[in-house]
Write a structure and sequence with these properties.
two-stranded antiparallel ribbon, about 10% strand, globular
């Protein structure tokens, strides 16, 4: 990716805290360039390699539950741009209208096949298209819906200086995020007030530590977390 000049950053993101992280990234322009090259090449390679898996999963999703194969939802990425994220559908049709935007522990909206796909993160294979299009990166803050982005503090907005990611240090740490949510409580309030700030602490730490080798290390760590 190419880091915009500070004066070209959307005004909604400009504050003293985001300026601090911007200056950190401004010193890592070459790593940001390598990140985009790495993302594109690896995403194309994986898309070809996983094509048979893509077809098999698509057929299974279609045969085991009613609804479209792909789940599409508007999320927020670099500089606050809105895009459509792609995933294999793991929940019943119209699940967004049947409950919260986050998934609960033992959420009845998740299909049996969906549980398996989520366990091994196979539902995220279609995000390779998002990466190729430059909307996402392999590593970065998981993209949130606009509702949650509107709850970001000034410091949290700094995460929008980089592309949203398929995985991150926060994703690994909160792999079982749904277990922290209880349907008896206010799910939205718990997520915004408790879980989101903690995830963002990891995401901001990522910006400070970012380099292409750190990205590769987090990708390997993600694979190990999935298979264990």
């Amino acid at each position: 990716m190419i880091l915009h000049k500070w004066e070209d950053i959307p005004s909604a993101l400009k504050n003293e805290r985001t300026r601090y992280y911007y200056e950190i990234l401004n010193k890592k322009k070459f790593d940001l360039f390598l990140k985009r090259v790495f993302d594109f090449i690896v995403a194309v390679f994986l898309l070809v390699l996983l094509a048979p898996v893509f077809v098999i999963v698509a057929i299974l999703v279609k045969l085991t539950s009613v609804g479209p194969v792909l789940y599409k939802q508007e999320r927020v990425t670099t500089y606050g741009r809105v895009f459509r994220i792609y995933k294999f559908r793991t929940m019943v049709e119209n699940a967004d209208k049947m409950g919260s935007l986050v998934t609960l522990d033992n959420d009845t909206r998740v299909t049996k096949l969906g549980q398996f796909l989520r366990r091994f993160r196979l539902d995220e294979i279609p995000q390779l298209f998002n990466i190729i299009l430059g909307q996402m990166s392999f590593v970065g803050t998981r993209p949130e819906v606009k509702k949650y982005v509107e709850a970001y503090s000034d410091e949290m907005l700094a995460t929008l200086l980089m592309p949203a990611g398929v995985t991150s240090l926060a994703s690994i740490s909160f792999r079982d995020e749904d277990k922290h949510l209880d349907s008896r409580e206010s799910v939205e309030a718990t997520y915004i007030n408790k879980i989101l700030p903690e995830k963002m602490r990891h995401n901001l730490e990522y910006i400070e530590k970012f380099n292409i080798f750190y990205d590769v290390a987090l990708m390997i760590k993600t694979v190990l977390a999935v298979v264990n």
